[in-house]
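User: Some background: our group keeps a shared notebook of sequences we're curious about, and every so often someone picks one and asks for a predicted structure to add to the entry. Today it's my turn. The entry only has the sequence so far, pasted here. Could you supply the structure so I can complete it?
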Amino acid sequence: MASYVYEIATGKLVSYSPSDTVASDEVLASYGRAAARDLPALDDTHAWDEATHTVIVVPAPVRPRMVSTFAFIGAFTAAEFKAIRSSTDDQMQHLLYMLERTSEVDMNGATLQQGLAYAVALNLITQARADEIGAIS
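Assistant: Of course. Here's the predicted structure to add to the notebook entry:
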């Protein structure tokens, strides 16, 4: 467990002690600071929260899951892809334009996930098919 010293007025983190050893509360207070003790160490999934004066868990970043554009397009049936290409929706055409200029797509990326959801909203594919297509690797 670790201790954290922060500014009382702002909650801003001033220092961190992995050994859980910091000055006494009285000494810290004389400098306008306080300590939060016995908290987890900071790492990729733990961050200091100024508002609560504690360590919070943050979600691990989502790793990219790259597949070739060829494999992505190949996941659609011919009828599904024809429906998408035939769509007169400006946003869908914009997504296709971007897709045609890539060699890889990030299956975990927001643009791709939103694009699949948008195709469902336009009734170009079903949600079940969007889930199947979104799961390719």
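Suggested note for the entry: The chain is about 35% helix and 25% strand. Residues 66-134 form one domain.
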